[in-house]
Amino acid sequence: MGERHSTLVRPAAAVLAVVAGLGCVLLGVTTVLSPGAPGVTAGRPATVAAGVLPAALVIPDLGLALGHLVDLGHVGGRREQPGTAPGVGWFADGPAPGAPGVAVLSGHAGFGYSSGSFARLDTLKPGAPVVVRDDEGREARFQVRRTATFPADEPDSTLVAPEGPGPELRLITSDGTHDFAGIDSPRIAVYAVPV
Fold this sequence. Notes:
Blueprint: H1 2-27, E1 40-41, E2 44-45, E3 56-59, E4 64-66, E5 70-72, E6 74-75, E7 78-79, E8 88-91, E9 101-107, E10 110-111, E11 114-115, E12 129-133, E13 139-150, H2 156-159, E14 167-173, E15 187-194
Parallel strand pairs: 5-8, 9-14
Antiparallel strand pairs: 1-2, 3-4, 3-12, 6-7, 8-9, 10-11, 12-13, 13-15, 14-15
C-alpha cells in the first residue's frame, strides 16, 4: 500500500506544480523566486496607512475596467513587470493608492504583437477620472493632472519621482522587458492626484 501511495504522490505533485504555474500565467503574475521584503505578508503590506490595496482599476476615458491587479516586486535587481498584455500591476513595495507618497500602477502599451492595457495611456487629458478599488469595494478616486512622454529607455525612477508631499497616483507604461517585439516607443507617465 505504501509503495502505491508514493507512486501516486509524485505525479500528483507534478500536476499541482503545472497547475500553479498556469494559474500564475493566466493571472498575469511574473513568478518571483526571492523572499519578500520586510513588512510584507503574502505579497501584501501589513498596513496601508489610509490607502486602498489595489484590486481593481477603472479609467472611464480609456474604457478600461480591470477586476484584477497583480503585486509587482523586484527580480534580479529589475522592477517586475506584468506578465500579460492586459495585465496591470501595483509596485507593492511602495504606498497604496491614496496613502502619502507616489502609488504606482504599471501596464504594457504593447506586449509582443498585442496592445496592452495602457496602449492609449497617452490620450488621457487633465481632469480625467481614475478609480482604484480594493477587494472590499473601498475606492481611492483620482483626477489626471498631466501626462508626460519619456524616451523608451527611461528608468522607472524618473517616471515615478514625487512631485509633492501628498498622495499621488502614477500610471506608467512598462519598460518592455516582456515585449518580445522590442520596446522602441516612448514610455508614458500619467500624474494623478486625489479628488
